[in-house]
# Entry
Amino acid sequence: MTTVAVAPREIHDLVYRCCRVAGCDPGLADRVADNVMYAEVLIGGGVAAFVATAGADEPTSAFAQAADRVESAEAGLRSGGDGRAEFDEPVPLAAIAGAIWHLLGRPMSCTPAFSSDASALCAAVEIVDGKAEEAQLQPLRDRVAGCMRNGVAVPTAAFEVLEVRATAFLVAEATLDELA
# Structure
């Protein structure tokens, strides 16, 4: 498998554009892009999971809505309820990786933790009070810092699909020339 080195912001930007083309509002598009970017950075395979998931870039898809369910579960736990997010249909870990990463930065931990496969399907997330183990967090922090500095290797084929899908968001130069 050939790979291409890209900055995480490029992943975020292209996924964002794909989502906007599919009809997602800016906030939802940003949320999906954040999750896919962190999946790629933390465990690899986020871009491949995004481009392979049917409906991943539709605003009403389980993929697009999954992170909101994780945050709702956290809010439920903080207000005295349970911290469980269940998905109507299992979603790839890539759909919730950013939400889990941000959750670990607060005094929370959850199951599932990061696995080695962003396309692994997840039917539910269980959030519990209590900070994750420092020994578990530090390697992830180091990975994020390294990828933000040096880029991340993404499978070339998946990245090319992402680029093609994102081009529909761009305005053709001829269209801009007509406006001038």
Observations:
- The chain has one domain: 3-179.
